[in-house]
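#onboarding

Welcome to the new folks! Below is a worked example of what a typical request in this channel looks like: someone posts a single protein sequence, and someone else replies with the predicted structure as tokens. Don't worry about understanding the tokens yet, we'll cover that in week two.

Example request:
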Amino acid sequence: MKKNNTILKKLLALSLIAALFSCNNAEGNKEETVKTADSTVSATPTPAPAPAFTPFDVLVISHTVKDYDKWRPAFDTDATARKTGGMEDMVVGRGIDNSNNIIIAMKVSDVQKARDFVADPRLKDVMGKAGVTSKPGIEFFRAIRYNPDSKEKQWVVVTHRVKDFDAWVKVYDGEGTAQRASEGMVDVALARGIEDPNMVQIVFDITDMAKAKAAITSDAKKKLMMSAGVEGMPKIEFYKTAE
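Example response:
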């Protein structure tokens, strides 16, 4: 009888040990599951940052035509020559005050090729046949800021020279995009002259023409330009995107 009791006690002890081991093992598996879940969450990739903006070169041609409807087909036909010259059409604008005043902005892959293109007598001949009546304005800029999502079909181009670009841009940034937006203007592009880096051209989409014209010709804006080191009278031109 004593022998049987001893055997029973040993079996109970073994059962208790087995039960304790099973509980510990379950807790360990639970911890591993939590750790695995945590590592899965931490391993989720973060969204890649937006690519940095790369400045690009721009050729801006402005002139007056006798008849836009006659000029436009000739311009479109010459697209192959522009492409061969390393140019990509960005926008064609018509003056708001005079719809026969034309501005053309083109992205340039090779500035020298573009210079050769505009210097070629062939272009002068094409323009003459298309009805260009003024001497073309030809300017090369490097766009250092650009908003490709601009949507408005009316815009203003401001061109002026500054004493010191770095000093000027601090004042420009100090004014801020929100202030300009409240004046009916949305920042589109900021460019510097290639030949003269202190020549600045700014483009704004217009959301409210009355506000934009009032703000850009106001005494407050003139004083701000002077404090930023703008030299001479800025050239301010209003355009609408040509259909």
